[in-house]
């Protein structure tokens, strides 16, 4: 009961924040591109903080809060760093394979979010710096705390691995507002979740996420198909 109430309460908070953001910033077409980019992690980070507060409330009422794995089963920091590097490789290679299969089978190529492409195409140094900060630091931190440290961890201990992988992966994919990329985002969610489960350390999932985003951003900015290329 209390878990259901906490979930609904968190969704209500997210809805209110989205509504307030739209009122304050005005219509989407009048917003600068960077506002939508940096606003997402801030919103998700706020949602995580709300869920964390609700979890503390549940614990105070007798509910149990479990760590991802017992402390004695956590990998060492050095080993976890190695696992994060491996997860980056798996994430990038898997994403590329999914993109290729999707393009070959159904003829739909995966494209980056339009707001990000627009921001890169302008080539403004300040905006590119904000994009880099968001993609490599803020987004991995906020998204891993919410979708893995909170949702995946709690679902894993209450429902088992299957539901804990599927439900947060779908939420993570949908949150990116990129329908043609749903399969890729779901794949990434599974990779990051298993990294967290394997190491027992959320920082490993955050690093894997950050490394993947850094590679994708570098390709977008410096690659042969970059909008910055003449």
From TrEMBL:
<feature type="transmembrane region" description="Helical">
    <location>
        <begin position="7"/>
        <end position="26"/>
    </location>
</feature>
<feature type="transmembrane region" description="Helical">
    <location>
        <begin position="32"/>
        <end position="54"/>
    </location>
</feature>
<keyword id="KW-1133">Transmembrane helix</keyword>
<feature type="domain" description="CAAX prenyl protease 2/Lysostaphin resistance protein A-like">
    <location>
        <begin position="128"/>
        <end position="215"/>
    </location>
</feature>
<dbReference type="Pfam" id="PF02517">
    <property type="entry name" value="Rce1-like"/>
</dbReference>
<feature type="transmembrane region" description="Helical">
    <location>
        <begin position="182"/>
        <end position="199"/>
    </location>
</feature>
<feature type="transmembrane region" description="Helical">
    <location>
        <begin position="75"/>
        <end position="101"/>
    </location>
</feature>
<keyword id="KW-0812">Transmembrane</keyword>
<feature type="transmembrane region" description="Helical">
    <location>
        <begin position="206"/>
        <end position="224"/>
    </location>
</feature>
<dbReference type="InterPro" id="IPR052710">
    <property type="entry name" value="CAAX_protease"/>
</dbReference>
<dbReference type="GO" id="GO:0080120">
    <property type="term" value="P:CAAX-box protein maturation"/>
</dbReference>
<protein>
    <recommendedName>
        <fullName>CAAX prenyl protease 2/Lysostaphin resistance protein A-like domain-containing protein</fullName>
    </recommendedName>
</protein>
<dbReference type="InterPro" id="IPR003675">
    <property type="entry name" value="Rce1/LyrA-like_dom"/>
</dbReference>
<feature type="transmembrane region" description="Helical">
    <location>
        <begin position="159"/>
        <end position="176"/>
    </location>
</feature>
<dbReference type="GO" id="GO:0004175">
    <property type="term" value="F:endopeptidase activity"/>
</dbReference>
<keyword id="KW-0472">Membrane</keyword>
<feature type="transmembrane region" description="Helical">
    <location>
        <begin position="128"/>
        <end position="147"/>
    </location>
</feature>
